[in-house]
Amino acid sequence: MIFVCIMWMLGDDGVLKAPAMSRLELLQQQALHHNRAFDILESLTVEVGPRMAGTSHDLRGVQWAKHKFEELGFDEVWLEQAQYPSWIRGEATCEIVDPFPQPLAVTALGTSVATLDDGVTAQVVSFENLDALKSADPLEVSGKIVFINQAMERSNTGRGYGKAVVVRRSGASEAARKGALAVLIRSIGTDSHRFPHTGLQRYDEDTEQIPAAALSNPDANQLQLALKRGPVTLRLFLSARKGPMFSSFNVIGEIKGREVPEELVLLGAHLDSWDLGTGALDDGAGVAIVTEVGRLISNMRERPRRTIRVVLFANEEQGLWGAKAYAAQHESELNRHMIAAESDFGAGPVWHFTTAVREKALPFMHQVAEALKPLGVDMGDNNSYGGPDLRPMMELGLPVVSLIQDGTDYFDYHHTADDTLDKVDPKALSQSVAAFATFAYMCAETDVTFSDEHIHE
Questions:
Q1: Using CA atoms, how far apart are residues 202 and 111, in angstroms rounded to an integer?
Q2: Averaged pLDDT in 10-residue chunks for the chain of 457 residues
Q3: CATH match for 18-85+245-454 among 3.40.630.10, 2.40.440.10, 3.30.450.20, 3.20.20.80
């Protein structure tokens, strides 16, 4: 049996009685062996495809999600507006002009401006990392195309992403301060395929906006080898541009609690994706996981005490716009949100569980961890990151947990044309559903409070 049925006690504040534990055992079995998460993901990636914010596919995704929630039996389904600026990728080409003419695989970074119609042609100056660029003499950079050649480290936690992504976010503005004409970065990814990784970059208000793009890792290697042989001249062309303000929606569905429906356990994922692939891993898998958890709990013979609220956030990729809109719209009732978790790290199995709750709730969280152990999940600290779309609410005091998935291969595909359904292992996806369902059910069934703001006494 996947779960040992034990009566766990937390005094009067946290009793989970034997019948509830039996229901949890059945829920875990259904999640592992009879869930529809892969079918949901297939539906999303085939019937909608890429879901880049600010496009018609963005709104198609919203309608798909609303219909899917209704089809799967959620008690209440509604939309909440989120507005944001749109961006149009356009075309991107890059080539070595001299001394070894050849094309390089490239993509524009999110919010990049365009080059002139005939592109930018200039000599390349290379830096191993962002700090090296920051300390460079402006005379070394002025009038050139900057190439930042910082590689990302592979790990199951994705810790290398945090170290490398600063290059993508800040590289253009740092290069512009030194007088660069454009910036190229090595893709923020761990693969060795000719698929460049896109992603958001940000312009500082006090700098000129210059074109920003990413080379695939093999093409970054090729440029690096060419530079070892002497000066290299590149031509970069981008037709990216700003679009109009756009209105989309967070999609929200609820499974009403049987005793205290006003108290919410929130499960989140983001509905948008980048446009190069079909967004199967980022974040279609997360959408499928939290949607299926909602369906499984809605079909329980006896539902948990608290309400399960599933939120599919708009436009995470280009600035957490849906999450910010949700936090603003629900700030006055944030104390109804007891705790939250987010799925936004691909389709690998959950292996680690961390929390960010008040100290008095930790004994209950250790019991949740015990329920996760048979799934291969271990317990971490009480300093959980939560997830990007939860950050605006965490800043307002929302307690969170992280159910951390194995991200060893995630950044091979992240933000590339290779983010497609065939990369998803249905068995691993089912394990993630079981882990998220365990957390959601237990936190919705207990009367433990996870923040000092939630104390009822």
A1: 7
A2: 39 66 93 96 99 99 99 99 98 99 99 98 99 98 99 96 97 99 99 98 97 99 99 99 98 98 99 99 99 98 97 99 99 97 99 98 94 98 97 98 98 99 98 99 97 65
A3: 3.40.630.10
Question: How many beta carbons lie within 10 A of that of residue 81, not counting itself?
Answer: 12
Preceding omega of 99 cis (within 30 degrees of 0): yes
**Alpha-carbon 187 to chain mean position:** 17
The amino acid sitting at 290 is: V
Please tell me what DSSP assigns to residue 205. Answer: T
In whole angstroms, give the CA distance from residue 345 to residue 284.
Answer: 10
As a CATH number, domain 90-239 is 3.50.30.30
Are 60 and 79 within 8 A, CB to CB? no
pTM of the model: 0.95
Give the residue numbers marked as catalytic: 316
Domain with CATH 3.40.630.10 in the chain: 18-85+245-454
Q: Answer for the pair 79, 64: CB distance below 8 angstroms, yes or no.
A: no
CA 416 to chain centre: 14
What's the start-to-end Cα distance of the chain, in Å?
38
